[in-house]
Structures are given as C-alpha cells and as structure tokens.
Amino acid sequence: MPVNGVLDDRGAQVLRHVVEDYIETAEPVGSRTISKKMGQQLSPATIRNIMADLEEMGYLVQPHTSAGRVPTSSGFRYYVDYLLARRRLARPERDQLQRMAAGEAGSASADEVVRQFSRLLSSLSRQACVVVVSRLSSQPLRSLNLLRAGVDRILLVSVTQAGWVEHRLIEGERDLSADDLVKINAYLNELAAGLSLPQMRVKILQEMKKEKARYDRLMQRALLLGARALDEGSPAEVYVEGRANILDKPEFVEDVQKLKRILRAFEEKSIIVRLLDRALEEEAIQVSIGTENPVESLPDISVVASGYRLGEATMGSIGLIGPVRMDYSHVIPLVEYSARLLSSVFEHR
DNA sequence: GGTTCGGCCATGTAATCTTT
DNA sequence: AAAGATTACATGGCCGAACC
Predict the structure, then answer these.
(1) Which domains does chain A have, with CATH numbers?
(2) Of all helices (H) and strands (E), which one includes residue A237?
(3) Taking the CB of residue A307, how many other CB atoms lie within 10 A of it?
(4) If you average pLDDT over residues A38-62, what whole number do you get?
(5) What is the pLDDT of residues A273-295, one digit of tens each?
(6) Does A186 contact strand C, using a CB cutoff of 7 Å?
(7) Which positions 5-24 on chain A have a beta carbon less than 7 angstroms from any atom of strand C?
(8) Does the CB of A45 fall within 7 Å of any strand C atom?
C-alpha cells in the first residue's frame, strides 16, 4: 500500500465500501461486512490489513478497539474527489424541481421563489436546506419608494430588478409632507435607474455637491434622506428549511450537545452565511466536509452549496447542511441542478 | 440505583497456505 | 522464494442481564 495518500485499487474499493456502508447505517463498519460486500473476493482478515493501512493514512478511525471503522473527513474527501460515481439526478426529482421552477417563474415575490426551492430541496434530500441571498445591494434597482410610516418615521421600500424587496425605516423625519415625498420619490427614481444601492449612494453624494450650489432645499433634503437610508449595507437574507431533518440523523440524536450547537447555528444568520460563503465566490459547486467547513465549532456537519446568479452577478447561494455522513452522490447533483434552475428562473423574470 | 459478568463482535497477529 | 491471502486464536470493549 503506497503511503503518499494515493490508494491502489484495492484500498480504494475498500474505502468506497466503508464510506457507502457508513452513509447507509451510521454504524462503524467491520471487516466481515466489507468482505461480504465485495463478494468474498477477500477474506475479512485481508480486509482488516487494508483497513489498518487506511487508518494509518488517516482515512479511517476506530471509535474504540474492537469496533468497526468510521471514515474521517479526509476519508470522505477522498471518496468525493476520486471514488464517487457521478450519478445523474433521477428523472422524478428533476421533473419535480422543473415543475416547481416553472410554477414559480411568474411569482411576483423573489423570496417566495427561493423559499419554495429551499422547501423542495430539503424534502428531496432529507437534509436541512439553506438559501442565502446576499449582495442584495449589488443588484440593479427597479424602483425606490419613500412612504410615511408614522409621525416621525419614513419607510424606504426598494425593489430590485430580479424582484427582491427590501424595507428600511428612517427615524426622526417629521416635517416632510406627503406631497414632498412624492416629489422626492420621483427625483430619486430618476437617479436610481439601473443602479445598485451602493452605486446609487455614490451618485447621491455627487449630486449633493452640485445641489449645494443650486440651493434647492427639497432636493437637498431628498439626497440627505437617500444617503441616510443607504448608509449601512444591506444584510444578507437567510432562509432555512427542513431543520427537523437533522433530528432524524442518529449521530446527532445520540449526542445532544452536537444537536444543540447545530440548531443554534441555524438561528444565527452570520454563521449560516459563513458556511455558504465560499459558494458565493466560486462558480462550481462547493463541498465542505466536516472539519473543512469554515465554522470550527461545527466539525460534524458538511455543506454542499452552489452559487446562483443573475447574469454576471452572483445573487446568493443555495446549499444543504447535514451530517458528514451525507449521500454525496445524491446530494451533489441535486444542489447543482437546483442552483442552475434557480439562476434560470431569475434570468427569465 | 449502581456494579459485575458473560456473550458478542471486531480486532491484531502468528502460523499456514497460495500465487506468481 | 517472496509476497500476498487465509486461518485460527487471543484480546479488548460494548451491552444487556443478573445481581447486590
């Protein structure tokens, strides 16, 4: 058996069987099981030797002496990189996703679209599905609207061209009449045409200099308002569906501490964003296995995620979160396909 | 309720057999 | 003959049952 981390054919076959059996049963896998799976070509004792080598190379571990073996993160990594049979997505699943996409294509609200995707994906995969919509602010705007929302507060509603709606509340504005707001709206929308929020902010700051010279009180006011509203960057939206699927996983049910940490992470936007962050950068699907994922406190979960886009711009990422023991051959094509569909839904709005 | 015991399973290894 | 595979056996840890 070579020691540089590359496996010969037998080692690879054994590792593959161990990983697949473990994915199925969540139990440590013994040498006899593998021997049977391989049609008794090799005796359990021989398998044991091979498994001992695999353990030495860091692909397997033994929870305790005289237990079967469990794949490590790098064991899964090797499996995903070299041994995984790239399965095509099963017909019925593709149809289901496609039907849903077609149904949602006309939907008015973009976040309803991602929510539906998330729901379906979590039920097809039996994992928790997470969608992150980030960079809302990088999308070009369709419209901008200021509404009076109380004596001293104004609501800013912005709608992007893809159909995302965002609200912001501006406090402490009491002396603008409804009539003023209508004028300001018209003015800002004229400025906004086709720009994203940050671009618009820059534009507003430029305009402010000019307006100072012209001394138009209302326009000045409009710009100040716009600048205030756009001051802080927009936070990412996060949707989590299928949290309960985590409760079906024996490895988490047995360890309440792990379960708690994971469920808590689902409540924490920033953690989710961090988990799916890499998928935003890269075009290709990202698989983070166990300790590879960027959140150190969650070494027992894997993330399979892919970005989706609107034209050139990345809009967000969609991904599945589950135990390291995920059926990657199923989940990877699922996520890939969903991300592509999601992109095309937004493309055609 | 906590502890001990025996069955069970999987292991590692030495001795032995098979293949090349 | 050497390398590889198998057999046979002792060992270690888990788990449920019996016991205190």
Answers:
(1) 9-83 (1.10.10.10), 91-135+236-347 (3.30.450.40), 139-229 (3.30.390.60)
(2) strand A237-241
(3) 25
(4) 82
(5) 899 988 887 878 999 999 899 99
(6) no
(7) 10
(8) yes
